[in-house]
Write a structure and sequence with these properties.
mainly alpha; 5 helices
Amino acid sequence: MEPSCSAADIKKAYRKAALKHHPDKAAQLLVRNENTDDGFWRDVVKEVYADADHLFKTIAEAYNVLSDPDKVKMLSQIFSDSNNNQLVVIFAALN
């Protein structure tokens, strides 16, 4: 994503990343593929869910900032012009 992306582009990237990294989706893939009756796999599923949940919340926080022009403006003032791309790197890494 470019710093000049429209609100619609930001929303589209958010929805794509949120669907791709939803915690239930990540845990379901493991449940389908492994025997969760085994204690080891049960623990693995819990860890994967926790990590996916954290990532999902990070995506939501990024969208919250990037979709608010006032927050983007405030962050743009904090970062120098050469570092402004850091504001949109979050979505770029997740897509």
